[in-house]
Design a protein that fits this description.
The chain is an all-alpha fold. The chain is built from four helices and no strands. Helix content is 71%, strand content 0%. The mean pLDDT is 90.
Length: 108
């Protein structure tokens, strides 16, 4: 802090500096917003492609049915009601939805 009181000439110079700084801040904020958007897009792209390499994609449907049966029957960790567990499995992906829908014993 300073006890300096600027004269009119100094005030004018300070106002010019503030105006230029404000413009620079706005320009940087716009660039930052652009970079954040690009980063979000790249992360989504990365996550999607990483998920394609997930080992669970290689499991045959028969093994998924067996696993889902244990989850729904309560043999696995109890994480909620039968209805919630079924709903969760149906929401993961189209393949899981098809496996669950094509396995009548899961629908008891």
């Amino acid at each position: 802090r300073s006890y300096y009181v600027p004269n009119q000439l100094d005030r004018s110079a300070i106002e010019d500096i503030l105006f230029a700084s404000d413009d620079a801040i706005r320009a940087l904020e716009a660039e930052l917003s652009n970079f954040q958007s690009r980063l979000s897009n790249i992360r989504s792209f990365f996550d999607f492609h990483r998920s394609l390499l997930s080992p669970i994609r290689e499991l045959p449907d028969e093994l998924l049915r067996e696993i889902f049966g244990h989850v729904i029957s309560g043999d696995a960790i109890d994480i909620g009601s039968h209805r919630n567990q079924m709903w969760d499995l149906l929401q993961v992906c189209i393949r899981w939805r098809n496996v669950v829908q094509d396995t009548p014993p899961l629908w008891r």
